[in-house]
Structure formats: structure tokens, C-alpha cells
Specification:
This protein is mainly beta. The chain has a single domain, classed as Trna Endonuclease, Chain: A, domain 1 (3-Layer(aba) Sandwich), CATH 3.40.1350. 12% of the residues lie in helices and 30% in strands. The strands form three sheets. A five-stranded mixed beta sheet has the order 1-2-3-7-8, covered by helices on one side. The protein has a two-stranded antiparallel sheet with strand order 4-9. The longest helix is centred in the first third of the chain and has 18 residues.
Amino acid sequence: MSSRKAKGFERGPRVSLSPCRKGDLAEIEFLGRATALGYNLTKPFGHAAPYDFLIERGGRARRIQVKSTWVRGKGAGYAVRVGHFDVRWGCTAYSKKEIDFIAAYVAPEDAWYIIPIRAIQGGNTIGLFPHVAGSRARYERYREAWHLLENI
């Protein structure tokens, strides 16, 4: 994990950001990090695709859905919604037919979790604990696991 804190969390004036703007910032952070790691990225036009990016290196493409969390919850962890909203069904979990990975950004800790969709075990929300040293939480093995994008 990087030792820097996410942009916007330094001391000084605070700007209130809408959820949409926070999502945009997380996608920009993902774009920068993945590009620095040598991946090629494509962003679909509009909002019809269930993924935010196609990421490719070595001839294999993966569908990535970027999610973010900006505030630690009362349960000491960061909650990340890993579902999407459907007008007919409400919030539903992503499926393997829609995406390959969730890239979850914990903004206050500048931590990324690269989680295969097959590892998401039910529900629409997961808890992440990058601020807990030695955490054995379910998804900790996916923290900064960028190498998984090459191993499908």
C-alpha cells in the first residue's frame, strides 16, 4: 500500500463532493494506477455497460467495475457496495457474466482491493479493513492484488 493518503484528505479546506464526483475520482485513480502498471484501458461510452473499464495486457481483456468508499463506518470497517441498481429489482449483485473484477478503492487509506467477482460471497456490500494492521478479514488477501488481473 502506498504511504500517501488520497488526494483531498490533506489538512486544509474541505470540498463537499457528490457521490457521482467521488466515483469519478476513484475511476481516475484506477486509470492512473493501472496505466502506471503497464495495462491498456478502454472506457465504454455512456452507462450501458455493467463495467467501468476493459483492462488488457498480454492479449487478455478483463471487465473491471470500480467502486469506492470515502468514510469509515461505525463497525470500524469501510463498507463498499458491490451491487448495481436495477429499476425492476433494486440493488442486485454483479454476476460473472457482467464483470470479472471489482476494483474497490478505500480513498482515505489510498488502498485498492482487486477482487475477483467469484470471490464475492453473497450480498451487495462488503467490509474492508486496510487501516487494521494484520487484519484477517475476508477480503484482505485482495489488497493491492493487481497481479490477479493477469491470472484469469
